[in-house]
Amino acid sequence: MPAKKGTGLLMVWCDVPSDREDEFNRWYNEEHIAEILAVPGVLSAARYEAVKGGPKHLACYELESPAAVLGDGFTKRTKSRWSETMGPTIIGQNFFNPLYEMIFPDSVSSDLAGSSMAPVLQVGRMNIPVERTDEWNQWYNSTFVPNFEKVTGVIRGRRFKTVRGEDPMYSVVYEFENENVSQTTEWAAQLEIDPKNADMRALITHGPGSPSIFKKTFEL
User: Fold this and answer.
1) What's the total number of domains in the chain?
2) Which of 26, 41, 72, 151 has a CA between 20 and 30 Å from the CA of residue 199?
3) What confidence category does residue 191 fall into, taking pLDDT thresholds of 50, 70 and 90?
4) Per the domain annotation, does 2 fall within a domain?
5) Is residue 3 situated within a structural domain?
6) What's the whole-model pTM score?
7) For every residue of the chain, which 3-state class applies, written as one string?
8) What are the backbone angles phi and psi of residue 163, rounded to the nearest 5°?
């Protein structure tokens, strides 16, 4: 079975003027998603809308590796006339499209590779002081994400480092079964369950709108 996830992730965020939103959604769903999925190395894709945080619109592309969108297959693809008047780079506000490389887990398991696009995503985008990077990453990978993965409704958590695009440098993407998972007492309990959490969490500076929760609206 073809892989659905790899080590790369492209996320495209934007807001759209209300008078252009209907056409924007039609363009994305009827044309653009399929166009990007035709690029070699783009494994799967879905669109999401914010239920907490923002910007409102998020397109998520799972990649074999970040190289999938750095080569000619992506950058020199043929674009339609519709794309010349539509799209997040043309009409979008608060637009950003960071390209990520997965840093946790450290490999793509068969379970991860075969997994579908999640119904809900919670995305945290963050920076931390450079001098604490090694300690902080070790804690995040060995303690913080694994504890949240025990919470009912959490499918998995993955961490990424930005390889192209805007700060913040690090992102965490939790896949949820529904949009209420991180609003539960079970989730909240994990925030303080380990004695290192308070110190490590205090190092985090979140990007605008982070953490944000997105519900899936479209997938081919």
Assistant:
1) 1
2) 151
3) very high
4) no
5) no
6) 0.96
7) CCCCCCCEEEEEEEECCHHHHHHHHHHHHHHHHHHHHCCCCEEEEEEEEEEECCCCEEEEEEECCHHHHCCHHHHCCCCCCHHHCCCHHHHCEEEECCEEEEEECCCCCHHHHCCCCCCEEEEEEEECCHHHHHHHHHHHHHHHHHHHCCCCCEEEEEEEEEEECCCCCEEEEEEECCCCHHHCHHHHHHCCCCCCHHHHHCCCEECCCCCEEEEEEECC
8) -110, -15
Domain interval for residue 214:
8-218
- Band (pLDDT 50/70/90 cuts) for residue 166 is confident
Q: Is residue 1 part of a domain?
A: no
Q: What is the pLDDT of residues 85-103, one digit of tens each?
A: 999 999 999 999 999 999 9
For residue 165, the model assigns a pLDDT of 87
